[in-house]
From TrEMBL:
Enzyme class: oxidoreductase
Enzyme Commission number, as recorded: 1.1.1.262
Misc. remarks from the entry: The active site is located at the dimer interface.
Signal peptide: none
Similarity-based family: Belongs to the PdxA family.
A Pfam family it matches: PdxA
Residues that hold substrate according to the record: 141-142, 279, 288, 297
Species the sequence originates in: Thauera humireducens
Note on how the cofactor is bound: Binds 1 divalent metal cation per subunit. Can use ions such as Zn(2+), Mg(2+) or Co(2+).
Protein name (record): 4-hydroxythreonine-4-phosphate dehydrogenase
NADP as UniProt keyword: yes
UniProt GO MF annotations: 4-hydroxythreonine-4-phosphate dehydrogenase activity; cobalt ion binding; magnesium ion binding; NAD binding; zinc ion binding
């Protein structure tokens, strides 16, 4: 969807956990010129109160399908279940957070929004609100988006510090990683990563640097056989289809500038293999991207920061970067 002013695409920005820094970070989107029209999804009174608390002289107006001509920040109002205080979690508002996500997903699927950007949520509060905290019915944004869009497999990729790092496995105990790096999982992940680098990033012939699982990429089988038995056969099969796949590479030397310059993205086998390097280079300005969805979704790379909520000290850099990247992805998709 586009607005009447400059025909800019409209991007939904969910304000996340109301007790966290999300609402005040969303308020900071005002006062800047964006290549898209951001629409904040949240309780408009909460946003006004949090802006006032942090000393932001902002105006919020209800979203009516077009950008406000006087620069006020448009808000698609979703009412809180109960008033929220900075830093104080309340399970009564757990379902409110899901309502924000559901409305953004619906808008993206129906073409009302060109993309969605998410501020952080608190998984525990949402699970408690659903009545089964031990069962963990909500394990995170990524899993929820996949379920709601009926997507069988998604890929987490972080962008920042001049890098794109995607993951084969995400939030698994380290002891479970080798068994999860199967040929089907690796092949599906590479196909999704390759497709979305073309579709959303405008890279016509992506070059993907693939990390090995073991130290020294297994060193010919002396430090593990996953490279020989799983990774190399998958890479050879996909190379035969024309994909540019470099590896498996030892992870300890993959992230040097010379090697990174040879690729458009890195594929790491597990969470802490790839993300510490990227976060060292970009923390506070990194972006989490969910690949494989039928919609565009980017997110901040940090949590709810309850201790900073209401203080005005939270850094909006990651949210700004997430909105900028969503705009770039929307533009890349539009030219295809």
């Amino acid at each position: 969807m586009t607005t009447g002013r400059g025909a800019k695409p409209v991007v939904a920005v969910t304000s996340g956990e109301p007790a966290g820094v999300g609402p005040e970070l969303c308020a900071r989107l005002a006062g800047r010129e964006w290549p898209v029209t951001p629409v904040i999804l949240g309780d408009i009174d909460l946003l006004r109160a949090r802006a006032a608390l942090t000393g932001s002289p902002l105006r919020f107006v209800p979203w009516e399908g077009q950008a406000s001509p006087d620069g006020a920040l448009p808000v698609l109002h979703v009412p809180l279940a109960r008033p929220s205080r900075p830093g104080v979690l309340d399970a009564a508002n757990g379902r409110y957070v899901l309502e924000l996500l559901d409305r953004a997903i619906k808008g993206c699927m129906e073409g009302e929004f060109a993309a969605m950007v998410t501020a952080p949520v608190h998984k525990g509060v949402i699970c408690e609100s659903l009545g089964a905290p031990d069962a963990m019915p909500f394990s995170g944004h990524t899993e929820y988006l996949a379920e709601q869009t009926h997507t069988p497999r998604v890929v987490m990729m972080l962008v920042g510090g001049g890098m794109r790092v995607a993951l084969v496995t995400t939030h698994l105990p380290l002891a479970q990683v080798p068994a999860a790096v199967t040929a089907p999982a690796l092949e599906e992940t590479i196909r999704i990563l390759h497709t979305d680098l073309v579709r959303h990033f405008g890279i016509t012939a992506p070059r993907i640097l693939v990390a090995g699982l073991n130290p020294h990429a297994g060193e010919g089988g002396h430090m593990g056989r996953e490279e020989i038995d799983v990774i190399i056969p998958v890479l050879e099969r996909l190379r035969a289809e024309g994909m540019q796949l470099i590896g498996p590479l030892p992870a300890d030397t993959l992230f040097v500038p010379h090697t990174l310059a040879q690729g458009d993205a890195v594929l790491a086998m597990y969470h802490d293999q790839g993300l510490p390097v990227l976060k060292h280079a970009s923390f506070g300005g990194g972006v989490n991207v969910t690949l494989g969805l039928p919609i565009i979704r980017t997110s901040v790379d940090h949590g709810t920061a309850l201790d900073l909520a209401g203080s005005g000290k939270a850094d909006p850099g990651s949210l700004f970067a997430a909105l900028d990247l969503a705009a770039t992805m929307v533009a890349a998709r539009a030219v295809r």
